[in-house]
Amino acid sequence: MAAELQTPRSQTPAPVATRHIALAGNPNAGKTTLFNALTGMRQKVGNYPGVTVEKKEGRCTLPEGAEVVILDLPGTYSLSPKSPDEEIARDVLLGLRADTPVPDAVIVVVDASNLERNLYLATQVLELGIPTVIALNMTDVALANGKAVDARQLSKELGAPVVETVAVRGQGLDALRGALATSIAAPASPSLKLPQSVEEARGRLAQVIEGNGLRAASQGVALRLLSSNVPAPSVRHGFGPLVEETLQEQRSDAALAPLKVAAAEAQARYAMLGEVVARSVKAPAGGKTLSRTFSDRADAILTHKFYGMAIFALITMLVFSAIFSWASYPMELIDGAMTWLGDQVSTRMAEGPLRDLIVQGIIAGVGAVVIFLPQIMILFFFIGILEDSGYMARAAFIMDRMMSKVGLHGRAFIPLMSSFACSIPGIMATRTISNRRDRMTTILIAPLMSCSARLPVYTLMIATFIPNQHLWGFSVGSGFIGLTLPVVVLFSLYTLGVVAAMAMAWLFKRTLFKGPPPALMLELPPYKVPAWRNVVVTMWERGSQFLKRAGTIILAISIVLWFLLSYPKVKVGALPSSDLSPAAGIRPGPGNAPPIANEPTTDGETSTEEKLTALQARHSYAGRFGHFLEPAIAPLGFNWKIGIGLIGAMSAREVFVSTMGNVYAVGDADETSESLKKQMMSDRWPNGQKVWTPLVAVSLLVYFVLAMQCISTLAVVKRETNSWKWPLFMQVYMTALAWGAAFVVYQGGRFLGWG
Amino acid sequence: MQTSLDTLKPGDEATVTALEGDPETVERLMEMGLIAGTPIRVLKFAPMGDPVEIVMRGYHFTLRRHEAAGVLVEMGTAVS
Is it true that the peptide bond before A516 is cis, omega within 30 degrees of 0? Predict the structure, then answer.
């Protein structure tokens, strides 16, 4: 079989099916750098069906002109997997996946400066019998550390070709491509010596595998099946029912439990590797002792009790302010460009439903998608640098204690912090968390962090309803430096989000994602200068994926929301009637309060056009739904107008403010609009009570802190979890949380006589 | 002197004698190279006191005190 896996070096390469070459390696061995160097930007990112693991493929041209597909397997330390990512690596190499055939050849990237542990995976792969090339990477770092790896000796020890590379500088790539172009012999690696009971089991299983005529290297394949819990259907798919049965029989022996076999394997393999490394690595003459490297000296400061924390706080603030404020310039540009485009279309097209659809539906919808790109790209620019330089592992090291208190991983910190700007890049950044339960918990709580879209709503409510009381500080001329009530309220809103997120994380880790606390077992790789190509590729990939996967959903829902807010159309003839209330017929049921009493009495300030907009907003499906919603939100102190605002806020939270502007007939409004404040203050319930009181404002603020009101986030969660189940769950739990909290605030406040 | 990894101080050198605890964790630690007979050096504890950073087999590795308590060691690296 192994012979069949090789593609003969044919003189006529054209009609031969494209060869698939898998790229395997430890995390931090330079696998991504090598993948990017071999494939350039010719990459395709998708998902393995049924799991949330990313499938990255790229095309690479070999010296003789043939093209091969390179499949970048998830980084793993061993083929006895502990996470879905690592399972993919094992399953692809064993041929257990129906969607991905066994690769024609494998490149295993090995970090020469960390040879022993890297060879652990490499020898596991070699034992599978697939033609394999070892890319001995980072030979420069190894030399700097005083270790010279003898590639020829290593090749002899492993029974496979070894090519020296320095992927960051593009060294050795031609040799590697050349090696791929030739026919690679099946590896002739020595069989691993194991304890007798394991060796017997391996032998028996290997016999059955060979009997099925499936693999030449049956010993290595048998060991892989024995040392990890491969699901029975996968074994049947890859090796047939007989192998599956034999495996089950052997599992019944407690001494052959997968974890025991894997532990015995680790012991045996490291014993063997110790000898391999001793024979292949030479310390240069002079016996240079391992002195403190640059990395060690940097680390002494970067993880220092005081400086380390201070630097971490600085980096965090830099990233945060970059997504928060730097991104606002490109975002304004995009906003301006979309407005300009809309205006252009408006002036060139005849008025009508089609123009409305194009301008307010499609162009505005595309704008709603593209507007997120700057934040996503900037965040992944920094994440790329932090990951590639080796700092990200240190950030997890520093923050792990704090995050573990609520059962989260140290790596959850950066995604959560990013979510203060926008939870979309934050949720996309959870991919650095390998444990599924940790990652899901982090995704579910990320939208509780107050994102920048909530700020306009906070500002409007606070400026309108919270008196500017000076609490602590001193006056400077006409100004005031110190704490004011609005500042305290704003701070409390952010704090409420954080506290709720931590509480929910704690709860989720005890219910939905229950299990032993996932151990933090992390390599702290040496610091290095980030490879810019990796950073750019990361930014590009995340940006284009967002556009392709989430963007289409966001655009579709934006158009639906626009439709709900704009249809059915009010007839222009209806306007002269002094009755600005929704026509009696459109109210959904007799139980509703007559809306006439709600009308603002200060008609003097509203223009005809604004009245029409207001009428339209109320007359629309969303307006009707606002009425329909009123019984559900009245206990929180919200009337149907606020209901329309909440529906509008689903496209983006800040839309609440402009929707309020439409509903209250003040035209284009932003959070500082005085006329909007005035109209809101004069809104009354049918019984004459004011709708807007400070208590209602606080209730609404609490609702906004906790509620899921962002279809874009839901679209991204769908994309990241590969299922509609989790966005749906997120919507339900956050709505329940927000409703409950606002209910307690409003009803509690009324009980205490504040309403 | 037999003790566990979590009780060591920065700069201490020791040799692993045995691993205890959750089997899956033990297996992963072994795959990472933490095996009986492996010499290790404690580098530091994180600013908030947990996790611990060690050097083994020429690379840096970090684990929480909770898991480190299951790593039994003999002080000194004479065994290797």
Answer: no
Is residue A461 a contact partner of residue A453, using CB atoms and an 8 Å limit?
no
List the single residue in A82, A145, A290 with the smallest CB-CB distance to B28: A82
pLDDT digits (tens, 9 = 90+) for A446-484: 999 988 778 778 877 888 888 887 777 777 777 777 778
Give the residue from A497, A510, A500 showing the smallest Cα distance to A407. Answer: A510
Q: Give the predicted TM-score (pTM) of the model.
A: 0.81
Long-range pairs, A195-200, Cβ under 8 A, ≥24 = A195/A264, A195/A268, A197/A253, A197/A255, A197/A256, A198/A226, A198/A256, A198/A261, A198/A264, A198/A265
- Burial of residue A239 (CB within 10 Å: 0-12, 13-18, 19+) is buried
Q: Does the beta-carbon distance from A259 to B27 stay under 8 Å?
A: yes
**Considering only CA atoms, which of A114, A110, A121 is closest in space to residue A31?**
A110
Structure tokens at A98: 């129906």
Instruction: Write the CA distances from B43 to A409, B22, B51, integer angstroms.
Output: 21, 25, 11
How do beta strands A105-111 and A148-149 pair? unpaired
Looking at the partner chain, which of B25, B31, B53 has a beta carbon nearest the beta carbon of A266?
Answer: B31
Query: What is the ipTM, given to two decimal places?
Result: 0.95
For A158, other C-beta atoms within 10 Å of its C-beta total 23
Query: Rounded to 5 degrees, what are φ and ψ at B55?
Result: -110, 130
Radius of gyration of chain B from its Cα atoms, rounded to whole angstroms = 11
Can you read off the two tokens belonging to residue A373? Answer: 């790109």
